[in-house]
Task: structure prediction
Amino acid sequence: MPKNTNVKSTPVIINNDDCLDDKSALTAASNTTKKITHETSTQQQLLNLAKQFALADGLKPADQQLPIMERAKRHQQTCKIRQQKNLEAIIQQALEYSSLEEITDRADADWFNSFILLAENISNQTMQALWSKILAGEIARPGSFSLKALKVFKDMSISDAKLLSKARSLSVKDTHNNTMRIISGVYQKPNLLSVFFGNKQYRLNLAEFGLNYSDLLALEVNNLIFTQEAETRPLQKNETLIFDYNGTPLSLGYKTNNVCLNFYKFTAIGNELSQLIANTPNSQYQHVLQTHLAELLLIN
Result:
């Protein structure tokens, strides 16, 4: 029986597992045996994969092999069964995310057909959960996920998904147009007083919160974020911008005139796929945001 849950309120949580640093990795390596076991050798792993996809029979001696047509049929049948299981698992999870409430918009059969062609080879459970969220979200609100976004998502690895989750944890949502952005700094446009007091500019080092520039480039490669910084128009004293930071209202009040906010914008596809990620605020980033930019902004 499907659970009566709202799709947006049940996003998938992707844990950002910390990687070992170089020293820890070297220590771990030195404590392991150098002997390659039969179970963990690259040969054995390759053979295991070949067996899973019915491709191992041709590796036997010629007199023990099945005819090539029979081997091809077995491989095709194995792949079809695997794809069927993948799709059934995704649809089953999508049902659990779906509501029992009636909706007026009818699901697009062409979109669904494209969806199954893109999702049929997804066997990783975490990625299946995300694909099920896409399906449930699109059925509930047709037009939520474009085919362009699905094609990008198909080529994303679990590491890419974790990177998107990390970026999502540092992003704010514009409450007017539901677009995501990562605040990276603030500055006051130069004026005559700048000659005497210098320019007021404050930057956030995103690498301190686990998102370095190479991560931003990787997100850009997947068409999820723009690495060219954008900025707001010059805002005046007492103007206020309202954002949503991972489910919490965030108000930016300007203390002086001609202040611009710097940020990295999510692409349209990045905005779509960020819907899949749970609200996981970074408390350290939030604290630095409120204190480091306090010279020009009143942040609540």
